[in-house]
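Q: Could you fold this chain for me?
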Amino acid sequence: QVQLAESGGGLVQAGGSLRLSCAASGSIRSINAMGWYRQAPGKQRELVARITSGGSTNYADSVKGRFTISRDNAKNTVYLQMNSLKSEDTAAYYCKTQVTTTFLRYLEVWGQGTLVTVSS
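A: Sure. Below is the predicted structure, expressed as structure tokens.
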């Protein structure tokens, strides 16, 4: 089994910053891509940012220049630094990882979500 533990959400004023963390644990052989998604009330879940095992990144157009995704492979952790937050960034943020387990199974694992609320 593989588990994801997210942290870092909260309430922040517009223009402020937050840093989300997502740590993977369990029967992990290797972690491939890691990403952050978000879902606002009444909307579909969307990709925010993604980073491959080699460090290549891609971002949603709406967050380019404001958010930065990074990972610490030694800690099996992915981060999302969010700056210049806007009210439209308010959403539940979910971490997703692609994992190869020690039993050589390929899994896509989702975190439980962490709420980010940006007040205007």
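A (continued): The two ends are 40 Å apart (CA to CA).
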